[in-house]
Amino acid sequence: MRFSKSFIPTLKEIPNDAVVQSHILMLRAGLVRMVSAGIYSFLPLGYRVVRKVSEIIREEMNAIGGQEFHLPALNPKEIWEETNRAEAFGDTLFHIKNRDYVLAPTHEEIMTFHARNVVKSYKDMPQIWYQIQTKFRNEPRPRSGVIRGRQFLMKDAYSFDISWEGLDVSYELHDKAYRKIFDRCGLNYFVVGASSGAMGGTGSEEFMVKSPAGEDTAAYCESCGYAANVEVAASRVNMIGRDSVSKEIYEIHTPNVKSIDELTEFLKIEETVCAKSRIYIHNGQPVLIFMQGNDEVNESKLEKYLGSNVRPAHPEELLEITGADAGSIGPIGFKGRIVSDLKLKDRNNLFSGANKNDYHIGGIDFKRDVKNIEYADLRIVQSGEGCPNCDNSLEVFPAIELGHIFKLGTKYSDSMDAKFLDEKGEEHPIIMGSYGIGVERVIACFIEQRHDDKGIIWNKALAPFDVHLIGLNMKKAEIVDACEKIYNELNKQGIEVLFDDRDAAAGFKFNDADLLGMPLQIVIGEKKLKENMCEVKVRRTGERFDVGLNNLEQKVNERLVNL
RNA sequence: CGGGGUGUAGCGCAGCCCGGUUAGCGCGCUUCGUUCGGGACGAAGAGGUCGGGAGUUCGAAUCUCCCCACCCCGACCA
Q: Rounded mean pLDDT of chain A?
C-alpha cells in the first residue's frame, strides 16, 4: 500500500483525552478514532490488525472443531427474558426504543436458541460454535480507549455436550486453543482461576495480561506459577501466636483516634495487635468482621463465606447497631454474628474499639472474651504475602482480562429448555460451556507490552504490514525507480509492504515509521543506492544493516521469521 | 451515580481570575521557491457559531444560571 494514497492520520502530539499508552499510540498511529465515549472506529491500518488477530483466532478455533457463525446483534427482548438476564444485566443492556429489541451484550441465549431447535440427539454432539462479532454493553464508565468500550469485538464460543465429562473435554480444548492464540499473538499472559460471577457455572479461568491499565487485580507467584484473581486469591501468612499471658481487659481513652494508623501512633503499639472492626449487613442482620491491622476485607470472599446479600453498613446504621461510629467499634458488648480473619485466630492481648466513641479496649482475648467467634480467610491478598502453593511470595498487580472460559453447565439449557435424548431415549439438558476473547483488547494489550517512546513495535503476526519501505527524497527519479521495483518485487513474494512514497523530509518519515512500528524498515537513500545497497532496520532491536538489492527479498524473509 | 477537571481552527495550547480594538501562538493545511539520512527554510495564504442555551451589561471567550460532551478517581463490571 502506498502511504500517499492511504488514510493513515498519524498524530505528532498526544491527544488530550488519552491517558493509557495503548490508547495514545492507537490514536497517534492512526489505528482508531473515537466517535463517542467507549465507541471507536477502526481505521484502515487498525482494521488490518483486527483481521490478523481474527484470523489467528479462526485458525485455532477451527483446529479444535469450531464452526463459525454470524449471529444477529439485534435480539428480541423476550429471548433474554427466558433466562432472566434482561433483568440480570440491568442498565448494562442496551434497549431499543421503538421495538422490544435489545442489543446483545453476549450470545448465550441466541446460541442456545439454535441448539434447542436443532440439537435433539446425543448423536448431534459435541458441538463447538463460535463467532467474531460486535457486542454492546452500556458500561457506566468506558475508559482506556478500546480496553473498555460500549461496543466491542468479541470472539465468543459455545460448547454443547451430552455429559460433564464431555464439557471437561470441550473446556480443555478451549484452554489449549486460547494458549495457542495468545502465544501466536506474542502476548505475555498468565491464566488465573476466577469466580464465575453472573455468568453462572462451575468453573472458569481468565487469561490475563499484566498492565497498569488493568481493571482487575491479580495475584501471581513467579516461582510456581500460582495465579488468581484477587477476588479469590489465597495467601500464606506468618501467623502470630498467642502471648503466653493474657492481660485483663482495660478501657483506654483515645480522643479523636479513628484509624489504625492513629491508634498505633497514639498507643505506641504494632498494627498486628489491632483488631480492626467492620460492620456488614447480611440478610438484614449486622455482622462484625475483624481484620488484623490495616488488612482490607475482600468482599468477594466475605460474600462467599456468608452467602449472598452482603453489603457494608451505612455510617448512620453503625451508631444504632454498636453505639459508636466507625473507628470505635469493637467486640465487647456487640450482639450479633462475629467473623474474624484467620490472621487473628485465637489471639490475645488485642486492641479494638470500645463501642463508645473516643474509647478503645486493650487486653482482648478472642478465646476468652468473644463467644461464638468464627474464623475465615477474608483478607485481600497483598504483595509480599506468601504464595499458598510454594515458599515464595506473591506479587499483586493490575491486569487486563483478555479472555475468559466458563463451564456453564445447564444454566441456559435449563432455563431455555434445550434438551436432547440419550441412547436410552431419556431426556437431558445439554451441558454447555462458553468462551470469550476480547479482540480489541488483544491489540491494546499487545501495544501495552510492546512499545517504546517512539511508538508501537509490532511483531510479524499482528503487524498491519511486514515491511515499511521508505524512499528518501522522492524527487530523485533513481530513488523512485528503485523503490517501485522493490515494492513490486516484495509484493510479488507475498510480503506486505507499506511504501512511504510521500515527498517529505527524511526525519519526518523515519518518525512515522517508528510510530507505526512495522517489524522491518527498508530505507532507500541516494548514497547506498549507488552501491546497489539499501538499509534495513529492525524496529524491535533498532539494529540496522546494509543489504544488497539483489538478495533483498531473501534477507527480508529471513529476518521476518523471528519478529 | 458520587467527587474532581476540561471544552477556544484538524491537533496541542494561551487568553478567562480583573468584561472593552479585527480572539492569539505552535504544529498541520494551500501556493511558490529553496532543501532532502532523524519531525527543514523563506514568502504569501486559507481556516473560528470561543461546547449549547438563557441571563446580566452600552459591550461577554471572559460574569451568573441551566444543559451537553469528554477525561481522571471512586462505585459498578461476564
A: 92
